[in-house]
Structure prediction request, 144 residues.
Amino acid sequence: MDLLTRLQEDMKSAMKSGQKDRLGVIRMLISDVKNVDLQPNKPTPEQAVEAYGKKLRKSLEEYEKLGRTQEVEKLKAEIAVVEEYLPRKASKQETEALVNAFLAQNHFSEKDIGKAMGAFMKQHGGQVDPAIVNPILKSKLTGK
Prediction:
């Protein structure tokens, strides 16, 4: 089942069960997925969902800085709904194993952290979280 169909089915079930907050998030995701053809860089539906999640996380950070607890809780619930539609990212241990295998095949020096990160993300971009990869890669290359 493709992402749009899954979203539409989940929208129907959210409407039937009266989950208004969930319904609002799913409708936004459907809108973003339907509009990927209108965007100049033609992202995949998964990338559109990921971009929406990224916007929500950025808003969450801002509201946390302002101390707006009610909005923070609402955004956390919305992010949880969005994450249901994203592909599962590798855990920290799985990511570390991927980094070890990558460094065994490629030789980068301490000065090439940026190049190593770029090459690694090109190979494994959708599978891993860059925020987890970066510190692992730095520690492996610097030896600390």
Observations:
- The chain has a mean pLDDT of 86.
- The domain at 92-142 is CATH 1.10.10 (Arc Repressor Mutant, subunit A).
